[in-house]
Amino acid sequence: MKIKKTGVSLPAIHEMGRKIQQLSIETGQEYLFLQRGINSVVNIDLSEVVQNIDFNSKEIQTYPPSQGRAELREAINNEYFGGKSDISCISICGGGMPGIDNAFQIVDVHKIYLPVYHWGNYHNVMKIRNIEYDEYDSFDNLNRILPELKDCAVLLGDPGNPFGNKYDDEEIFAMIKKLDDNGTAVFYDSPYRRVFYDKNDNFYIRLLDIDNLVILDSFSKSLGLSGQRLGFVHSKSNEFNHEMAVRLAFATNGTNAFAQILVENLLTTEIGKKAVNNFKTKTVTEITKNIKYLKESGFIANEFYHESEPTGIFAIVNISEDELLANRIGSVSLSKFTLSRKNESAKYSRVCVSIDHEKFVEFFKNIKTKR
């Protein structure tokens, strides 16, 4: 039979994961899996939370609504938007990736502008869906090309991937507002923010004043639930939300009901909130230690952090993928996160810093310090 090929390869992290698994088997030595985007300090403890869930309930054993359970959307409204949005603006999807894929297809623009260094799946989705793209390398660059951005869309990620960089909230908000005023749609993809913030964070509430904005988030990072595949999309546009509901209905017939009820319990019950707080506290503590260690050892690639700080679960190090692999550390070359600057990026790597600090240092200490 004939096949319609996408022309897109599987992500580089898959290949690196396969490689170091094979090397571990062949050598009998332990390898550090830092190529992945998974919080690996500690698993969230769900043992008490799941005791509150009736696995035989109708809510779990029937199709959930295409836009998601109303109870979960209300919990998200309260947790992320201070109860000031509306559940009709929130759609539940099977992780961040389906949310991005559908949002990119729904918003009708000439092209989507991605950061020069970006998560490769953005571009891969656009290639599969035949969506035009372009690049920008800084907020200054966006300001200079504002006339070109009208009737286009810009993707902003904060904290970002691959850099794990965090910009000042006022700077981010001002950029989003300027793009909105310019008639430019904005995709604000922020699955890492809530690893470091809690319900007291009001940034999403401030974003409710922006019309041409789609917020993309997931619980893979903030709740350590990558395997449950659950995320959400927020938009003030009734047309956008209707189209999202239709697409989710025909693509999924409803997103995993158990995952929805689990997240609802984590956001609303005292036992759930305690589990989330313990997970975040331990995770952020080790991330902070690891970034500090990379800085003090001279391993952080400071040239990528002039206007921001390495904060998220990733960091860029001035060590090549091959050198890290020689020291039994899995990573992804920075060259895999750009389309236009591959050659100059090959000497850098992205590593996940969300891992036990002692284990992290154990592997990095054998690499010659850059200071």
Walk me through this protein's architecture.
The longest helix is centred in the last third of the chain and has 27 residues, at 270-296. The protein has helices at residues 12-27, 58-61, 70-81, 96-106, 120-128, 139-144, 146-149, 169-181, 193-196, 203-207, 219-222, 238-252, 257-268, 270-296, 321-326, 342-345, 357-364, and strands at residues 32-33, 90-93, 112-115, 133-136, 153-157, 165-166, 185-189, 213-218, 231-235, 309-310, 314-317, 329-330, 332-333, 349-352. With 371 residues, it is of the alpha/beta class. It has two domains: 12-44 and 272-364, Aspartate Aminotransferase, domain 1; 49-269, 3-Layer(aba) Sandwich (Aspartate Aminotransferase, domain 2). The protein is globular and about 55 Å long. The strands form four sheets. Strands 2-9-8-7-5-3-4 form a seven-stranded mixed beta sheet, sandwiched between helices. It has a three-stranded antiparallel beta sheet with strand order 11-14-13. A two-stranded parallel sheet has the order 1-12.
Distance between the termini: 58 Å
Largest β sheet strand count, sense and barrel closure:
7 strands, mixed
> What name goes with the CATH superfamily of the largest domain?
Type I PLP-dependent aspartate aminotransferase-like (Major domain)
Which percent range fits the helix content?
40-55%
In CATH, what is the class of the largest domain?
Alpha Beta
Structural category is alpha/beta
CATH-defined fold name of the largest domain: Aspartate Aminotransferase, domain 2
Average the pLDDT over all residues and give the rounded result.
Answer: 94
What percent of residues are in strands? 5-15%
Instruction: Pick out the low-confidence regions.
Output: none
The CATH architecture of the largest domain would be 3-Layer(aba) Sandwich
| Gross geometry | globular
- For the biggest β-sheet, the strand order reads 2-9-8-7-5-3-4
Number of helices: 17
Domain count = 2
User: Taking Cα atoms only, what radius of gyration do you get, to the nearest Å?
Assistant: 21 Å
Number of strands: 14
